[in-house]
Amino acid sequence: MRGAVEVCGLVLGFLGCVFGFVSLHIDSWKESSDYDDVIVTSNLLENLWMSCAEDSTGTWNCWYFPSLLALPGYIQACRALMITAIAMGTFGLVATLVGMRCSRVGGENYVLKGRIAAVGGVFFILQGLCTMVAVSWYAANITREFFDPLYPGTKVSIGDGLYIGWSSGTLALIGGCCLLCSCNVKQEKLEYRFPPPSRGAGFTHSASSSQYGRNAYV
């Protein structure tokens, strides 16, 4: 049962890493909304790295943000959190592969392997927390601008990248909790058993008894 929980935690953590990588590279963290627009002539998409526009003819134009220092503070923070999440997920995968019971790496010291698997679970939890904070912070700014009647810019809505990011954070958190619940960090109890009597000792004892019997009758 413990091995199955470890495998489940590894699979969920791996999927969390994959979804986080996809979310970081997808274009649509936020996209233009049709709210209060009578005629829509272009579709705007934006993520942490660039902004894209599609006109009515289907032509795409994308441009990267010119300077990191010119970006709003929350975008800089979300970039740092997502990169940290990818790094934490990578460390979590390596630690989990080393610490699993079915892995041959690290020998048969299951106490040490359990602790390494627990470290992998902690890394997955940190990945999930970083991802959830980043996508939730970004979504909170989108929501604030959308419902602000004095906001002069274009109204935008939550894009697919944020939903993938939320899925990534949820999978990573569940995978980390599975690893923490399945790890064995306590010293296993040793069972002491008396060794069975050897066959030679039994024959010696019987031989001596029989010899003693013969001498008694003489």
From TrEMBL:
It is found in: Cell junction, Tight junction; Cell membrane. Gene3D superfamilies: 1.20.140.150. PANTHER family: CLAUDIN (PTHR12002). It comes from the Eukaryota. The chain crosses the membrane at residues 7-26, 73-95, 116-140, 163-185. It comes from Astyanax mexicanus (Blind cave fish). Residues 205-218 have a biased composition (Polar residues). Belongs to the claudin family. One of its GO terms (cellular component) is plasma membrane. Residues 198-218 are annotated as: Disordered. GO terms for molecular function: structural molecule activity. It is a multi-pass membrane protein. This is Claudin. Claudins function as major constituents of the tight junction complexes that regulate the permeability of epithelia. It holds the Pfam family PMP22_Claudin. Keywords: Cell junction, Cell membrane, Membrane, Tight junction, Transmembrane, Transmembrane helix. InterPro entries: Claudin (IPR006187), Claudin_CS (IPR017974), PMP22/EMP/MP20/Claudin (IPR004031).
